[in-house]
Write a structure and sequence with these properties.
InterPro entries: ASIL1/2-like, Myb_DNA-bind_4, SANT/Myb. By secondary structure, this protein is an all-alpha fold. The chain has seven helices and no strands.
């Protein structure tokens, strides 16, 4: 008589593999914002926000901001650019950071905080809004001291940077328009070929 072996309750349990659902469905991490993208976002948002008299932006307007940011950064169709939702979230984070930096600035009463965050000046200008015409500084024919000449040099550098930025913006806008026209011509051409061949 042969004895049959049955598994005993004392045998070690088989190892099980636990797989979490979150590890399988993990979203890809978004590409971090570059310095140039952030600057272009602030400026594009500022233009759109001021055109709406500082009213809230709707979804389609955020799309416009995203397109402007991509165009000013020189991105084409193949380069990943930021979505409208990413632009909105980034602006919310920038505004939060500006508020905390401004609070820190008033609490410490020093200019260190404004110098430590590179976007403070842009965000501060955004929040303050454009100066009314009556509040803009007027230059008079006073003699220029050494301090004034330093200020003048800074103003000239600032103006040169603004001109360069505006030139770059116009180039990017022209490039964006060319890309739109090119895509429209492709559509018209393909429609013409489709109807011409039948």
């Amino acid at each position: 008589m042969a004895a049959t072996t049955t598994p005993s309750s004392s045998s070690p349990p088989k190892p099980t593999v636990a797989v979490t659902v979150s590890s399988l469905t993990k979203k890809p991490q978004p590409i971090p914002w570059t310095h140039q993208e952030t600057i272009n976002l602030i400026r594009a948002y500022q233009e759109k926000w001021y055109s709406l008299k500082r009213g809230p932006l709707r979804g389609s307007q955020w799309e416009e901001v995203a397109v402007v940011v991509a165009a000013r950064c020189g991105y084409d169709y193949n380069h990943p650019s930021k979505t409208a939702l990413q632009c909105r979230h980034k602006m919310e984070k920038l505004r939060q950071r500006h508020r905390s930096e401004k609070h820190r600035l008033t609490a410490t009463s020093s200019a260190v905080s404004s110098r430590s965050w590179q976007y403070f000046r842009l965000m501060d200008d955004l929040e303050r809004g454009p100066l009314p015409i009556s509040a803009r500084p007027v230059l008079h024919g006073f003699p220029i001291s050494d301090e004034d000449s330093d200020g003048e040099r800074r103003k000239k550098r600032s103006m040169e940077m603004m001109k360069e930025t505006e030139r770059f913006r116009l180039e990017m806008e022209n490039k964006r328009i060319r890309m739109i026209l090119e895509s429209q011509w492709r559509i018209v051409d393909s429609i013409g070929k489709a109807f011409g061949s039948s």
